[in-house]
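COMPLEX REQUEST
Ligand: uridine-5'-diphosphate-xylopyranose
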Amino acid sequence: MTLKLSVIGCGYLGATHAACMSSLGFDVVGIDTDQSKVDLLSKGELPFYEPGLDTLLAAEIKTGRLTFTTDFSAVADADVHFICVGTPQSKDGLAADLTYVKASVTAIAPHLKEGSLVVGKSTVPVGTAQLLRDQLSVAAPQADLAWNPEFLREGFAVEDTLTPNRLVVGVANDRAEEILKDLYKPIIDLGTPWIRADLPTAELVKVAANSFLATKISFINAMAEVCEAAGGDVTVLAKAIGYDPRIGSRFLQAGIGFGGGCLPKDIRAFMARAEELGADQALEFLREIDAINMRARSRVIDIVRADLSEDLTQYKIAVLGATFKPDSDDVRDSPALDIAAQLQAAGAQVVVHDPKGIEPARKRFPNLDYQEKVVDAVKGADVILHLTEWKEYRELDPSVIGQLVKSKFIIDGRNMLDRNKWRAAGWRFHALGRTD
Ligand code: UDX
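STATUS: Structure written out below.
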């Protein structure tokens, strides 16, 4: 008999997981408390931008296997329940806010049928899974709980879900592992490594992975600072060290640093949890990783000030990019948007362009000026800041853009533009970590 699944929380993670599991042939019900989100998803429409997920979702809705609802009692039919709700940074500190995770388990508990398995996918502080398992053993003793962290990258969410580079399951017994193996059989059959862990290790794998990635980015941004001071070029340095397979060239792109809904809040929550566990010294370095990351943002502002003036009130700044990375409309903790807002707060006239992120950005910073077209955003600008590396920006013609701006000055905050091309068209070109 094919297992039936429920997915609680239908954001980037949950909507992707629901559509992907449906594409593997399972009946899936997605549950979210946001009625407007559920309405859109039920019509096969995505409430956010994620390449490839729109077509997959529409196709799966058509099969009839995939449905969405706000009604938690819909989980009663399902055998396996994936918790995919957010764990944002709490308002009053570094720790993760577990409100939604706890509320989800409480809401589904009365409806769980005999032998069902609740599977956490959200990123949580280590120890949460055991707490929830204890909570379930009272509220729904007929159910069990496992943890199955998710490593999907926005922009590659479908690919990372259907062909992940590993599957990690935290389980307390063989039965839970067997259920998950059964579910993921088509993915395991592709040769995907399968890692069984205990609950705390599974939770830790996720935050350890994100901490490592954040460390790699901040490492190269620290090198960028040194390169600037010493007259070096961080892009050449990154290329050179990346050839050592022990180091590897990926995630060594120097620039304005990491943002998004995961890396920044995950390293902070990890530090907060380590402190609770009395292991704060072990993660002291993450404080520095966070500081280097935030400094990358202020360095752009320093360069603008040093070049234009301390007083920015007379200047117009065009910001290319609002999302935290390209191929996403996600502006959560976006370095680009943070820099734009800080420059506006410093008195500059800031105009922001983004191919997909204008509406979400407007919700966060309604007072920034947004333009739908690059040519309108750059009109009369004293400086252009390239802050999110959308392909569209690499394809800009510097001669055409040069006729629209007041001053041909561009700062590449992502080290992705062809500086020879811009310089040949008469631009002053500044990039983070490159002195010449
Ligand atoms: C990340 C992890 O990669 C993923 O495994 C996890 O499940 C969730 O968090 P995501 O938030 O989608 O995924 O973004 P990611 O591709 O990791 O990029 C994070 C940030 O780092 C972006 O702001 C990006 O611009 C920045 N970055 C990335 C760099 O500044 N330099 C790099 O070399 C790579």
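REMARKS: The chain has a mean pLDDT of 97. The longest strand covers residues 4-8.
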